[in-house]
Amino acid sequence: MKFNEKTENPLGQLVEMSTRTVESNIEMAADIFVTLCFGVEDIELEEYTVSIKFRRAYLTTEPNGGRIDPNLKHGIRKHPERIARETEIEKSTKTTVSNNSAREAIVSGKFSPIDQSIEASRKGKKETSEVAEVQLSERNTDFFEHIPVEAQGNDRWIICNEKDISLSGYYLNNDRLCRIIMDNGRPNRFGISIAVEIKRQDIAIEITKNTRWFPLVPNKEKLLNALIGQRLASIAHGRNDRAITFAKSDTFVNSEVDHEG
Questions:
Q1: Cα distance between residue 172 and residue 95, in whole Å
Q2: How many Å apart are CA 67 and CA 78, to the nearest integer?
Q3: DSSP state letters, 139-193
Q4: DSSP 225-250
Q5: How far apart are the C-alpha atoms of 81 and 84, rounded to whole Å?
Q6: Which of 39, 91, 120, 163 is the most buried (most CB within 10 A)?
Q7: How far is it, in rounded angstroms, from Cα 230 to Cα 244?
Q8: What is the pLDDT of residues 52-73, one digit of tens each?
């Protein structure tokens, strides 16, 4: 199968995506490889310089004439059946015992040092006393693995850094995102559409330079952010009520023509 590919990156300085489709070694299937990069853009607006960044993004897919293999997705997080947890416990108590009684308990060898002190105190000898203090503590260590491009439900992927650090650099570099399997009956068209979507609340707009003597009041700063968001949406590939599409790739093959040839 020879695939036709079309990619649109209207704001490549912010989001740049390319795809490559390779016929799989499994009959009537293809592997989708993706390269995806994010950047930061500075915009001059009269007295202001505004920096545009993204906190997170989403890869959405729409197979055509086929389906995505659920077992061959990039970035699948499988939670373990069991979670091992290591706990350190230090037994402790506080008691007052006499020197002689403590020595007698230790000599008997029947109790731990703490229990020996308690046993000695039970003998009721009124001699020079000592106070022994021990603390009780418990410590758990849990490990969490961050996946920058993590598979989600509905054939989507979320792209993010830890602690909401802005996206920057390559997150996929010719990596296999998924495998698509052709539907039975050999449909006329077989392929997949992939889009990079960013929710409006995940667009971080920061004023990095202000030549005025006074800062923007909150209402004007909010208005400025809204205007920049509208400007980005007008230049980007498309938008809906949920998010703005910053890049899109369509890859397909006309299967009937391919088989006849």
A1: 62
A2: 21
A3: EE-------SEEEETTTEEEEE-GGGPPP-EEEEEEEEEEEEEEPTT--SEEEEE
A4: HHHHHHHHHHHSSEE-SSEEEEEEEE
A5: 10
A6: 120
A7: 10
A8: 999 999 999 999 999 999 999 9
Pairing of strands 15-23, 29-38: antiparallel
pLDDT per residue as tens digits for the range 4-18: 999 999 999 999 999
- Residue matched to tokens 């020079």: 128
pTM check: above 0.90: no
Instruction: Decide: 180 and 66 in contact? Cβ < 8 Å.
Output: yes
Is the pLDDT at 111 greater than 70? The verdict is no
Residue 42 CB contacts under 8 Å (≥ 6 apart), including other chains: 49, 50, 51, 52, 208
CA distance 146 to 65: 33
DSSP string covering 98-118, please?
EHHHHHHHHHHT-S-HHHHHH
Q: Is 83 helix (H, G, I), strand (E, B) or coil?
A: coil
